[in-house]
Write a structure and sequence with these properties.
The protein is of the alpha+beta class and about 130 residues long. Helix content is about 20%, strand content about 45%. Strand 4 (about 55) and strand 5 (about 60-70) form a beta hairpin. The longest helix has 17 residues, at about 1-20.
Amino acid sequence: MKRLIAMGLAAAGLALAACQTGPIPAWQDPNYPLQVSVSDTKLQSEIRVSVQKPERFGAGQLRVTLNVLNTTNDDLRVDYAYWFTDASGRQVEAPLTRGDTLPPHGYKPLVIESLSAVDDFRVQLRPWQ
């Protein structure tokens, strides 16, 4: 009976996972809020992301450094869009997009900075088209 219940729960979990419609999280510390996402599961398997503690500068602007590790044997070109939000989660600056190349099995710090005082940030990484 326990085995049957466990199999049923596993099947339900797989069915729910197949229906995921929200952003795909980048591989990162699971205790950190979902501020960094990726556009597809292929890219999710090719990179690892660690976010350093955001720092304040100037008149309350926010500087965030993302260390992105390329786990493949080839150069990996990524495009990343980022935007900043206020305390209620509303976007306060227009999204900006940049691109960069990550060396094979190497990492590159991606630094983003707000233009005004903000509370939080979001970043989406995607393959460079």
